[in-house]
């Protein structure tokens, strides 16, 4: 009897222009038969943005996706074109 | 001293003269002759009734003068000052002398203290002699000059005894550490010395002699070992003794017209010692005696001229040796040539040719005295093409015409190669031949007369005589070949297929194709040709043991099987519209309709049963009956599928080997989808489980999940066709990572912090617990991030409600904390609401390490 545990991003969606929704599934199998599957979600956006309360200037820090899986990185990189990034900043600062 | 005094009215009062009315002169005369009291005395007294203190002035003498018409200023002053508080046993005082400079600045010039110490604060000039009788003179000045050309140390009078002390200059310096140096007269060595790092013990110095740099040195060097004297000019006089050490004069020559005697003379690796000259590795290589030079090694010279005899006990090796002007080789050739020319041997003549220094040896053509020529590889013959060659051990090879013709070895005389040598010829025949063994030949030519006795063996020869009068017996032939037919053992065959037929007891096996009444086909194993159209004349017939027909094939292309017919393989009746008949009257038949490539079952009024004898069902007019009462196909052109199983007349559609089936036509008008496991509840050996049932009213019951294989599909509610707004196409449960956001500082979370979500369609309900266990100066607007789905990018998000189950552990009470989801993000903004003053952002500085939130938010995701 072999119990295996697999964690993988089983659903990656680009929602709107820049939201990359990632569903990470934790799959438990016994002898190849799936016993349970649970999900953990997170959403990636191209920047983490903050506004200085003193002069109202914005700082956009690029989101670090190095810890994401290769598929997530590839999709995020493809989705976040320069135009999309600019649009996000414009939207955020509006 | 007299007894008349001018005294004041009271002690310490009054004066003689004033500051403006002074006396011109003061004369004090003492006429006493007492040595203890004689001499004029000016007594200055300080008496205030108390004992004098340290620094109290006993008296002062001031010397003043006028700077102008009226002002008097001090030019010099002498003071007596108490050095310490006076007691009955202590009353020391100092006398201080002050002067003023051109600017009327007063300076202490000289102090004579109670310890007899005179201290000048300025320079001291002594115009006369200076005698210091103390035990120590210390000069701390930076520069000392002495005009005296001779500086005398050790006293100013002649010594009358030896104090054993050194004389010289001791000096201090620093070189890595404090050092004491000395140069001067070493009393014990009676020599001048310099010690760079000296020790002074009672003014006797010790230490290693230091380095000294001199110009010319006059005197005698007495120290035996001088490490290095780089240049001394000419040494003239005296001797160099054994303790002198090495002489190294570099490239300069050593010239002497005298003798070099004693010891040995070593020049690099050449040693001259007594009567020997040698190498450091062979010191006695040459020994010189009166008239004799003995060389113990090898003499390697360009030339050697010996006027007398040469006695060489070893080997004399020379490129050229002459004897009395004649080359040694010529001398030898002349001598040996004379020796050869005088020979008297038989069968050989030797002549010396002095012209070319050769010896001609002529061997006579006829040799009569040679008794043996034995040698390996020896050849005897005409030339190398025709010879007797002993090139191979134990073998004599005979060559003729440059080919090995005959080989004689131990026990065999054979040709040099196969089939190259005749034994005799038609004109030169051998006479008789006698053989004790077997004669083997490819052919015998000529008459073979006489009887051939014994058994003949080996390869059969060809009998060329066409007519053999009589061969009475051949016995048993192992193989008999008649033209291309070979009989060998149990096989009869062709020369190209020797095992075509194999004979055994009662059986003949043909390994090739057979043609009967016809040539064999190239493709058919058995080909039978005949023309009979009756059973008795049919070209192919198979009978049983009683000679009854089993199979008869006639030339009308009919085959009749008399018994049951079973084909293990396929049956191909190829006649167009041909029949397969059944029964003796051939009334029942199956016909292939070639035009439609279909089969016609003609029962001539009978019915067909599949798996069952026809006419067993209640539909007597059926044309097709199915086994088990499953149903019939009737003349009314309908199929009646019935069931007698427990499902009350339903019809089960099931693929063989699979457990799932569909049950149709249940009695209540419904049908269902089942799958099975091993068991039994309906008599068919399996347990049936309803997975999907649809009742007669249209209600569907699922006994399992509903899974849509295509994304975007779902359950449409309240409509009769698929519309997005009415389609439930998404449901998901899971966890998400919740965090607080703030513009400054940070917080840390207890591991019990968690967040879950449920999404139904676009509606997301998310719960979370944020339990802090640490803060680091959190500041700015407070929010929550990490929602599992991006919120819709419209006002739906803004109105999403964030409700807290509990908030506690804040720094101050926060009124009515609420929150909302920021559109198109995964964040929420927290705010504190005042009932009348609107709302403001909740601030992160209200957090503490014991803050925790429990909350629920419902919002719409983008999709």
Strands in their spatial order, largest beta sheet of chain A: 1-2-3
What best-fitting shape of chain A do the alpha-carbon axes yield? elongated
- As for the number of domains of chain A, it is 1
How much is the radius of gyration of chain B in Å?
77 Å
Chain pair forming the biggest interface: A-B, 17 and 21 residues
Number of helices of chain A: 2
Estimated structural class of chain A: alpha+beta
Descriptive notes:
The complex is a heterodimer of chains A (94) and B (863). Chain A has 94 residues and is an alpha+beta fold. Chain A has one domain (3-93). In chain A, 23% of the residues lie in helices and 50% in strands. Chain A has 2 helices and 5 strands. Chain A has helices spanning 70-79, 82-93; strands spanning 3-15, 19-30, 33-44, 47-51, 58-62. In chain A, the strands form 2 sheets. Chain A has a 3-stranded antiparallel sheet with strand order 1-2-3. A two-stranded antiparallel ribbon of chain A has the order 4-5. Chain B has 863 residues and is mostly beta strands. Helix content of chain B is 2%, strand content 36%. In chain B, the strands form 16 sheets. In chain B, strands 49, 51, 52, 53, 55 and 59 form a 6-stranded antiparallel sheet that branches. Chain B has a 5-stranded antiparallel sheet with strand order 1-2-3-4-5, with no helix packed on it. In chain B, a hairpin with a 5-residue loop joins strand 4 and strand 5 (118-120). At the A-B interface, strand 2 and strand 3 of A face strand 49 of B. Strand 3 (33-44) of chain A pairs parallel with strand 49 of chain B, so a sheet runs across the interface.
